[in-house]
Amino acid sequence: MFYDLRVAYHEAGHAVMGRHFNVPIQYIYKWPKGHEASAGVVFDDSLREIPFSKKGLILLAGNVAQSIHIGSLEEDYGSLNDFKPFIDRHTPEEIAKLWWQAHSILSNEWEMVERLAITLMESKRRHVMGKRIEKILKAT
Ligand SMILES: [Zn+2]
Asked: How far, in Å, is the centroid of ligand 1 from the Cα of 114?
């Protein structure tokens, strides 16, 4: 399903953070869009009801997971789109604070991120459905 392990970690980061705040996942998708691959996590509608601070952590979690995986921050995937909602609303200091908050949550749940990223890599489907994701995240 995923051609690039960094993308798999990125999407797994969003998914695990969503789960951390009890937002159910409908599915994770991946498809080629021209030469650029497109991927994303589609959450349940209840995502709209949680406060922006938590939504913000879910948004940042993709890049945070990527940076934990790589061991440094990369700018080449998803950064701009994911950071857009923050630029007008937060100071750089506030964004940095949210970043480290997301970093600490994902570090604690890193085993789940890895398990999901590997599943996304290995799946041959374009969609991995929420029920399956839930099973993967629950397995110990
Ligand atoms: Zn993202």
From this structure: 16
Q: Which CATH superfamily is domain 5-133 in?
A: Peptidase M41 (1.20.58.760)
CA pair distance 89, 39, nearest whole angstrom: 25
Domain ranges of the chain: 5-133
Residue with tokens 């021209």: 34
- Model pTM? 0.88
Residue type, 21: F
**Residues contacting 2, CB < 8 A, separation 6+:** 8, 11, 30, 39, 120, 121, 123
22-46 pLDDT, tens digit each: 999 999 998 765 555 678 999 999 9
**Distance between Cα 113 and ligand 1 center (Å):** 14
